[in-house]
Amino acid sequence: MKPITVTTFTFAWTLFAGTAYASPASYCSGSSNVCYSWAIPPSTSSASNSLYLRLEAPTEYQWIALGTGSGMDGSTMFVVYTDGSGNVTLSTRKGHGHDMPTHSQMSNVELISGSGVSNKTMVANIQWKDVSNMIDLKGSNHWISAWKKGSPLDTTDASTNFDEHDETDRFSVDLSKATTNSHTNPFTNTTNTQPSSNAVSGGGGGEDHTGSIHGAIMAVVFLLGFPIGSVLMPLLGKWLIHASWQVLAFVGMWIGFGVGKVAADRGGDWFHEPHVVLGTIVLPTTNED
Length: 289
Known about the structure:
Blueprint: H1 2-19, E1 25-28, E2 35-39, E3 51-58, E4 61-68, E5 76-82, E6 88-94, E7 102-103, E8 109-111, E9 116-118, E10 121-128, E11 140-149, E12 167-174, E13 200-202, H2 210-236, H3 239-267, H4 274-282
Antiparallel strand pairs: 1-2, 2-3, 3-10, 4-5, 4-11, 5-6, 6-7, 8-10, 9-10, 11-12, 12-13
Helix pairs in contact: 2-3
């Protein structure tokens, strides 16, 4: 009996180990009810180089989006919105800094069964083929997401323009924990997305305000800080007060520059946008009197 027991236990453990992650990896952004899922077919599948994606949100959202990478610049994005006839439109786009992402037709991306609008929820099930040269199917990848509430777009036009996002999110997904047993559509029997406990890290949702903070600091420094400092000397005749004020403005300027650098890095704009290039060149030449 002992050899049989050991054999049975070994078989059961092997079966468990092989199916421990036999379900999609899922993530929902904060309290927004915008959810995303990732699924990898088994290595023996003919679709083994495919990545399956699911985007899901209430129809109160005008559009939702998921993109590759840690910033908009160069990101491959999947934007989903209602088409006005009970289905959804999938618009594949390429990110260019903080400009409106432009539509980019992708022949290896398609909507699959289970997509549509039901119970005030829009769902897009997506198959992305031949992704091994862009996505690490056996490791962790960075992703970004965004969403906008508002009136439905109700269009089949994949190139349509839409308003800027309300909020954004960034996170990483370990696709080694997203392998499923399904050789085809892993979302066929999915109703509501439930977040994974250990496949997704980071995230938290919310708007990134570093760009606005940078702008506010620089506006105060250049519109108030330096001009006030320049008139303190002729008004008060106290060089120490004048110098101290100018030093504070000078320090504030570099703090603003640092915040701007963070904002540019997050948006993928560092030395890609004219404002960033011009500011980086001009700022070091700024001298206090």
